[in-house]
Every structure is written in C-alpha cells, then in structure tokens.
Design goal:
Helix content is about 45%, strand content about 15%. The protein is an alpha+beta fold. It has 2 domains: about 250 residues, Butyryl-CoA Dehydrogenase, subunit A, domain 2, CATH 2.40.110.10; about 190 residues, Butyryl-CoA Dehydrogenase, subunit A, domain 3, CATH 1.20.140. Strand 1 and strand 2 form a beta hairpin. Bound molecules: flavin-adenine dinucleotide (FAD).
Length: about 500
C-alpha cells in the first residue's frame, strides 16, 4: 500500500491551484496546503500499518488493499469497514470531512452495481489533432460501456490507493433554474465537444473540498437536472493536474495561523474548498461513467447504494467529532470548576445526548444493514438519513453549548505563543491566567483549542460544512423523509383509527 511519503511525492505535478492571484507551484510545500497534505500522508501511513486494521486482503488478487476503498460484502466486512473508518476519523478527531474514504466509498458502491451504468454509441469521427486539449487515449469511437469504465477505474483506486475529492454541485448561479437556462454557454461544467477518443468539458462545478491535495477529482451532478440539461448530465474522474483544470480555493486559513499552540485545528486540518474551472479539459472515454444521461445520474448515486454508504462514513466521522467536542466541553467545565454545578451538568448531559444520538444512528445503520441484490451490504437508510436530517440543528446546538461553557475564557488568552515566551508577559500570564487544576500553559492551550473549535475562521467554515456538506438542510431532510418508511407508521395510525368509531363508549 502507498506510504504517506509516496502520496506527498505524487502531489508534485502540473496542477493549477490558485491562491491570492497566483498559481501555487508545489502544494506539498505551500503554507496553505502542506499542513493538510501532511495530515493526509499520516492517514496513508496508518492504513499501511497492519496493526490499524484498515488493510485487507483482496480476495480476487490476494493483494493487500485499503478496505475503505472496497465494498463491504458481509456483516463482518461492514463492521470491519466501520472500525477502519473510525480509526481514520480518530486520527483527525473528525475534523477532516473529505478524507480519502469518503469518495472511496462512493466508488466501491458504484463498482458493485454495474447495472446502474449505461452504454453510449459514439458516432464522432473527430481526432485529437488541433483540438483544445491533448489526448491521453487511443480508444476509438463506438460503443462505450460505462459499467466497465467504473469497474476499471475503481480497480485503479484500490490498486494505486488513490485519494479522490469530489465536486458534484453546480456553481451557485441561480437555484430558480437549472444550467440550461443560465446566461452564457456551459457555466456549469458540460460537454463542449465530443470526439472519437473522448470529450472536452468546459464550465465550473463546486466545491471540491480537499481537491488541491487530492490525486483525482470525481465530477458529477447530484442536484436534479431536467430534460434540457443533458449537456450537464455527466460523471467523470479527472486528475487534479489535468491540462485546463483550474482550482480556485477559498481563502486558506492555515497560513495565517501563528502556531499549533494558538490554532491546533487550523494548523492540521484546513482541507480547503475549491471551485473547479474546466477550461476545455479533455476527458478520455474510459474516464466517463455517465454521459448525457439525466436519469443515469440518479441511478449512479442512489440505486447503487453509494449515497447511503458514503454518508454512513460521513456520519461516523461526525460522531467521532462530536465525541471530541463533548470531551472538550467537559474539560473546559472542569478547568473552570463548574462541572459539578447542576446547570452545567444539564448542559453537558444535553451535549452527551446529542453525541450519543449520532453514534447510535451509525450503529443502528449497521444493525439494520442488509445485502442488496448485488451483495453490497448497505447500511440501513432509515438510520443514516435520520441522523443526517438532524445535523443542521444538532451541530449549531453543540456549538452553542460549548460557547456557553467557555464564556470569555477563549478571549482571555494572550495574542499568540510569543506572549508565552516573552519573560515579562509570561510572568503575568502565569500569575493571572491559570486555574487550580491547570497551569497557565495548559489553560491557555485548552482555551485556544476551544476557540479553534467554535470561533476561529476554521471553526466558522466547519459550522457551514456540517450544515451543507451533504446538501442544503431542506435536501437532507428530504432524504430522511423518503427513507424513513412511512408505510408502517401510516398503517399503525389507520389501524388505530379503525379500532373505534362514533358508537364507541369512552373507557
Ligand atoms: C464547507 C463546505 C464544503 C463543501 N464540500 C463539498 C464537496 O467536497 N463536494 C461537493 O460536491 N460539494 C461540497 N459542498 C457543497 C455543498 O454540497 C453545497 O453547499 C450543498 O449541496 C448546498 O448547495 P448550495 O450551497 O448551492 O446551496 P443552495 O442550493 O443554493 O441552497 C442555499 C439555501 O437556499 C434555499 N433554497 C435553495 N433551493 C431551495 C429550494 N428548492 N427549496 C427551498 N429552499 C431552497 C435554502 O434555504 C438553502 O439552504 C460543500 C459546501 C460547504 C459549505
């Protein structure tokens, strides 16, 4: 399996990542991206360590592979999958949303469901010569079997231990209409040209978290499209360094973070998020999975089980993060000497309940998992989407409790670690910023961590992330609505109503 240093070395390619008006030369050594790249490298090292339980033997090839890139095919597999995902999530304490297992889960499910992918007969007789982007493929025009493409690509993810990010949302131009109605051709990424050896895509897609430090990006569209949107009904995988692909990152937070002591989360886990711009990017046929097929996009995400498996991984990561926040809140309360006060116990109890709910949703999904018709063990959708449906209320509530408990302590801290090493300021900090159970260095460290969790720019981005990563809250509640299974509860109510009438005497 790939080591962390193999991964870091592979980042030096032709990728065009823009920050502050400049393309970044080498993401692995740039202050905005080096910290998260090192964190991802650490994940690869952990996976390669047999003691982590993340590696498994591929039954087909006998090779040692990352189980988080393979489909769970038994209950035991599913449990081992969750435990492996937990090991990775614990390494980042849940603060990295798009670790390589997220999109890895989607592809594992895609490959388990070849029937969800179509074919396409291409009649294009074009050639790569003189075209907008260079061709890497010699495949001829003709029949394209997207299930075979998915299978071959997923095998590459497993064999080469690839880290994929994804961008599956149209840019936020207007949500009143879909892309065909927007001003300008191909604002959302779409087909600019069909050629014998592939297609050329143009336009933008949001929002590739981790894209700047990924190997490749999966590009698709999960928002419903209409019949006039076929140009945009695509799925493909593209190397981050592909010619013509540009990543416009939001402001990275890591470079402004003065030290790990001051910003312990920002300095490790700032994944970055990027708008992708495809300036005529060539995609060979074998990298296409859905082509001009609006219904095919829905089949890909939902019929394959990819959405429920990927979001189970995400809820598991979220559960780990909530456990961390619960521990942080408890420690802050203890340092301030309020953890035995009844009002505080109540708040910590509420936080514990919220964290337990998500953890229970993850375990309930495993308990109610079943194999589908292709033998993929799918976590129970009712439990996965039930937990997800509450996330946009639950996370702000957790933050509110933590904010309540820290009070002004997160601001009664020195400006930076430099004040801790200046003898004059340090003497004052030692004297005035301490608690009975924590000296100044420990207390300041704890409250700076708390600020990075609730108040820093990194924390604000995380707040937004937890609300939106799986779709806007109304979309996620729609998943909960559709997957709850209202038939049983409705039948219960009908049976109850049928059990009495006008004539019934009150008991
Ligand atoms: C930090 C962060 C990281 C992300 N990472 C990724 C990633 O890695 N990959 C990826 O593909 N995407 C990612 N996303 C994008 C995410 O998937 C989208 O933000 C999400 O799907 C919501 O789409 P939107 O932002 O365009 O919001 P919109 O769809 O524009 O919705 C915004 C708000 O408008 C209102 N609204 C819009 N439409 C309707 C409607 N039909 N009915 C009622 N109200 C409506 C609602 O109030 C809604 O909350 C990320 C987002 C964030 C914030």
């Amino acid at each position: 399996m790939r080591s962390g240093s193999d991964y870091l070395a592979s980042l030096k390619d032709a990728r065009r990542v823009f920050v502050d008006g400049e393309p970044v030369q080498d993401v692995a050594h740039h202050p905005a991206f080096a910290p998260i790249a090192r964190t991802v490298a650490g994940l690869f090292d952990t996976a390669a360590d047999p003691a982590s339980g993340i590696a498994r033997t591929d039954p087909g090839t006998g090779a040692t592979v990352n189980r988080l890139f393979t489909a769970p095919r038994s209950r035991e597999d599913l449990t081992a999958y969750r435990e492996a995902a937990t090991t990775w999530a614990r390494e980042t304490h849940g603060w990295v949303g798009r670790s390589p297992d997220h999109v890895g889960a989607f592809f594992a499910a895609f490959a388990a469901h070849p029937e969800a992918f179509g074919t396409y007969s291409s009649s294009a007789a074009g050639s790569a010569a003189g075209s907008a982007a260079g061709s890497a493929s010699g495949s001829a025009a003709g029949e394209h079997d997207f299930a075979a493409n998915v299978a071959a690509y997923q095998k590459r993810i497993v064999d080469e231990d690839l880290y994929l990010s994804y961008a599956i949302i149209p840019p936020q131009v207007s949500r009143a209409t879909t892309a065909h109605a927007w001003d300008g051709d191909l604002v959302q990424v779409g087909v600019a040209e069909e050629r014998a050896d592939g297609i050329v895509v143009r336009g933008a897609q949001m929002l590739a978290t981790g894209g700047a430090v990924a190997d490749e990006i999966f590009v698709s569209c999960i928002k419903p499209l209409g019949p006039e949107d076929t140009d945009f009904a695509l799925s493909f995988a593209v190397p981050v360094g592909a010619e013509g692909l540009k990543l416009y990152c939001r402001r990275p937070y890591a470079p402004a973070a003065s030290s790990a002591y001051d910003y312990p989360l920002t300095t490790r886990f700032d994944e970055t998020d990027a708008l992708l711009v495809f300036d005529d990017v060539f995609i060979p046929w074998e990298r296409l999975f859905v082509y001009r097929d609006v219904a095919g996009l829905r089949r890909q995400f939902f019929d394959t089980g990819a959405h429920v498996l990927g979001n189970w991984q995400a809820q598991n990561r979220f559960a780990v993060k909530l456990q961390f926040l619960a521990g942080l809140a408890r420690k802050v309360a203890a340092v301030n000497g309020v953890d035995k006060f009844p009002g505080v116990v109540e708040k910590l109890g509420e936080l514990a309940s919220l964290a337990s709910l998500v953890e229970s949703g993850v375990l309930a999904a495993e308990y109610t998992a079943e194999p589908d018709e292709q033998g993929l063990w799918r976590p129970g959708a009712r439990a996965v989407y039930g937990a997800m449906g509450l996330q946009s209320e639950l996370y702000p509530r957790v933050l509110a409790i933590l904010r309540d408990l820290v009070g002004g302590g997160v601001l009664q801290v020195p400006s930076s670690v430099a004040d801790m090493t200046n003898p004059e300021s340090r003497a004052d900090i030692d004297r005035y910023v301490h608690s009975p159970n924590a000296d100044a260095e420990q207390r300041v460290k704890l409250f700076k961590l708390a600020w990075d969790a609730v108040g820093s720019e990194f924390a604000g981005r995380h707040h937004q992330y937890e609300l939106f990563y799986a779709g806007a809250p109304f979309v996620v509640k729609g998943y909960a609505f559709r997957n709850y299974g209202f038939d049983g509860p409705l039948a219960d109510v009908d049976a109850f109503l049928a059990g009495y009438g006008l004539e019934t005497t009150p008991a």
